[in-house]
Amino acid sequence: MATFDSCNPARPAEVVATFPVQGGGDVDAAVAVAADAQRAWAAVPVPERAEIIGQCAVVLAQRKSELSRLVAREAGKVLVEAGGDVQEAIDMARFVAGQGRAAWGETVPSELRDKLAWTTRQPIGVVGLITPWNFPVAIPAWKVFPALLAGNGIVLKPSEHAPACAAAFVTACAEAGLPRGLLQAVYGYADPAVVLAVHQGVGALSFTGSVPTGRAVAVAAMEHGPKVVSLELGGKNAMIVRDDADLDLVVDGAIFGAFGTAGQRCTSTSRLVVHPAIADELIDRIVGRAQTLRLGDPLDPSTDVGPVITAASAERIVGAVEVAVGEGAGLACGGRLRRDVPGCDQGSFVEPTVLTGVKPASRVAREEVFGPVLAVLEVEDLDEAIAVVNSVEYGLSASIYTRDVNRALHAVDRIDAGIVYVNAPTIGAEISLPFGGTRHTGNGFREAGQRGIEQFSQLKSVYIDYSGRLQRAQIDNRAPVTGEA
Ligand code: UN1
Predict the structure, then answer these.
(1) pTM confidence score
(2) Ligand 1: which residue has its CA nearest to atom 3?
(3) What is d(CA 257, CA 270) in angstroms, rounded to the nearest whole number?
(4) Where does 3-233+442-463 sit in CATH, by number?
(5) Can you say how many angstroms the Cα of residue 250 is from the centroid of all Cα atoms in its chain?
(6) Homologous superfamily of 237-422 in CATH?
(7) Does residue 266 have an active-site annotation?
(8) Which is more confidently placed, 313 or 480?
């Protein structure tokens, strides 16, 4: 059988794990096994499902160090951020476990006497999950735990860049007591993902990744029958900085937001929309800090910025910087691809990059770079700054730095994004609020929070008439229609 290797992006010759390249037949088998296990799981009371999910949190917490090291080795995330990734999965398991004893539907008063009206949730059946490499434990967890609580079986297709993280997550869930077969994983490149998207046995598909792949997957899924398809795609997240902002706070936020995870988060801060009165000072300070960031092995606790995931990504990122400079941006720092980072043989790193004088219409101001590149745009008027923030095709996350509460809330109201921060960068969402975006970032669903379960369950409205006679909604207890105008 053909196999593929996942490797350490810091040292691509170092193989982390070897997995089979799976295809259609493997997906068929995985769906069949998950469907079989799901029939029994759907009959398990929700609080009991929740207890097993709670146990997943316990096992993940016991393994946090080991899993974090694996995330650092396979996805190239620096150790503290790898720890955050695993912690997000633990948090999600705990949150979802708690939901197992919370409201499951709603009860509303009926307009008729002796009648009940309420909703309940039904499982979808088998759900397909396609997940990216950049949060290789957290994002599977965001999807897997709500889907399990809702009573579904699961087939998970993780990114080919982080299969070992997904496999370790699946193993932890199995050891926590998840019934055999309920959570299946299939490995490989695009093939199993495409088969999953169009599979007749899969009732819902949840995808996180790039816009072109997400669109292709969604179109294929919709063409092949009724399927709930939820998409979590890109971002072009902006931080507005007003002239009254605490600049120490802004510098810390911009550095973490733009260069954390080497800029490879869908929530990364990629635009700084700054008031001209403070722009020069702020750029100087951000550039000063950016130049002190240490590139290195993610496993070394003194490393600030790890490698980007592949050589091809690194080339794409520096290509975007070159285009930006060609379009008139100033290169204040960074912009170079580095393959000479000590201890990181042939790993591809991109230096933290700050581009100045960026025009809202230029490509780097509009297109997702997915790398450590911060584009600075100068805008004086707050409403104009908000219009710039809203002018791109994405609406995932945004932030405003100001000490003026009126300005802050004015922006919160008008920014068109799924997540808005005040005096904090665009990254760092917590799992108990919904996560997702507007416009091309997604298709209206949200992950996490109380409503994270919605993409994985069907609502059923139930009416129970205990009056013993026919009661007609909208008709009885109303004045009769006479026929006269
Ligand atoms: C992603 O970038 O794909 O808010 C997810 C954050 C993290 C999740 C990011 N909690 O940055």
Answers:
(1) 0.96
(2) 266
(3) 8
(4) 3.40.605.10
(5) 24
(6) Aldehyde Dehydrogenase; Chain A, domain 2 (3.40.309.10)
(7) yes
(8) 313
